[in-house]
Amino acid sequence: MGKIRSLSPEVVGKIAAGEVVERPASVVKELLENSLDAGSRSIKVEVQGGGRKLIRVTDDGEGMTAEEARLALQRHTTSKIESVEDLFALHTFGFRGEALASLAAVSRMKISTRREEELAGVELQVEGGVVRHSSEAGVPRGTSIEVRDLFFNVPARLKFLKSPGTEMAHIGEILAKTALANPQARFQLFHEEKLLSTYPVRPDLSARMVEALGDDTAGKMFPFHGRQGELHVEGFAGEPDLNRSNSRGIYLFVNRRPVRDRLLTHAVMEGFRNLIPANRYPVAVLFVDIPPSEVDVNVHPSKWEVKFSDSETVHRSVIRAIRAMLEEIPWLKTSPRERPEGVKEHQGLYGALGREASLPVSWTGSLRARPRPESEDESPEGSPPVSFLGQIQDTYLIFVSPDGILLLDQHAAHERILLEKLGKDLSGGNLSRQGLLLPEVVELASAEAEIIQEHLGDLGRMGFELEPAGGRTFWLKSTPQILSPEDPLQLLREMIREISSWQKGADLEQFFDPLLKMMACRGAIQAGRAMGRQEAQALLSDLQKCRFPSHCPHGRPTLLRITPSDLEKMFGRK
Question: Could you give the angle at which helices 311-327 and 262-271 cross, rounded to 10 degrees?
Answer without folding.
Answer: 30
